[in-house]
Design goal:
With 264 residues, the chain is mostly helical. It has a domain of 144 residues. Helix content is 66%, strand content 3%. Strands 1-2 form a two-stranded antiparallel ribbon. Helix 1 runs antiparallel to helix 4 and helix 3 packs antiparallel against helix 4. The protein starts with a strand and ends with a helix.
């Protein structure tokens, strides 16, 4: 939270006309420290109102309505403008006794003395205004952030945005890589499936050819065996025929020799 404090002064046009010619009665003030912001504002309002009362009031206690001060007078006493922009946190600030004032107290005392106030009243008003200013500044300083914190917050926002962008980019790249890898694996699986189908078809074809060759060979073997059996049977009959002819021939020769031997 940022705040701006304007210079405090009492313009002559803001004071009532009957105070320029006479001095108000002196009132005694006892200040207690430290004061809260509300207590300081109430004390400042009562003190200034008592000092600005006419002498005909006789020192009687009069209420201090806030609406009777002119707008210019209220604005010249103290004006702050706040603007919520960042998260607030408490920070260490300079103590009240070591803090620099935001206005010239001596010039303000002389200005009050010039417009009809005595020295004690002027010092009292300046003291009240100083206390109120310090309390208000203390509250403002506790709620405002430093330039380093603002810079750090800006850098953190930039780093956060950069991380978000990088994360989105990495996620998009990973998603693209995954899709490409999935497409590549799908294509590879399709190619392998195609090759497997081709190999299966070729194996089936080879198996059919092999079975056909085996069947043909078996048929040839069976045919050859049948032919050999037929040849063997024919050879067997011829052999038996030759043997029978040989036996009969031998018997005929033997009978011929026996007949010749017998005739001799």
């Amino acid at each position: 939270m940022f705040a701006t404090v304007q210079k405090l002064h009492f313009p002559a046009s803001s004071l009532p006309q009957n105070y320029l010619a006479r001095k108000p009665e002196r009132d005694s003030f006892r200040l207690s420290f430290p004061l809260s912001k509300r207590d300081a504002e109430d004390m400042w309002s009562r003190s200034v109102w008592r000092l600005l009362l006419p002498e005909s009031s006789g020192g009687r206690q009069v209420s201090t309505p806030r609406g009777r001060f002119s707008r210019a007078l209220r604005r010249d006493f103290f004006t702050t403008t706040t603007k919520e922009e960042y998260d607030t946190r408490r920070v260490d600030i300079t103590p009240l006794e070591q803090r620099k004032l935001t206005f010239d107290t001596h010039a303000l005392v002389r200005d009050l003395e010039t417009h009809g106030f005595d020295k004690a009243q002027a010092k009292t008003i300046v003291s009240v205004l100083t206390t109120l200013s310090n309390v208000s500044l203390d509250t403002i300083y506790k709620e405002m952030v430093t330039q380093a914190q603002q810079k750090m917050k800006t850098e953190l926002e930039q780093v956060k945005q950069q991380l978000i962008n990088e994360t989105s980019q990495i996620r998009a790249d990973n998603k693209l890589d995954i899709n490409l890898e999935r497409s590549r694996v799908t294509d590879m699986f399709t190619d392998q499936e195609k090759k497997l189908m081709e190999a299966t078809t070729e194996f089936t074809k080879k198996d059919t050819q092999t079975n056909s060759i085996i069947s043909e060979t078996s048929n040839k073997i069976d045919t050859e065996i049948a032919s050999l059996k037929t040849l063997m049977e024919s050879n067997k009959l011829e052999t038996i025929r030759y043997l029978a002819a040989s036996v009969f021939t031998c018997l005929a020769i033997a009978l011929g020799f026996y007949r010749l031997w017998k005739q001799q």
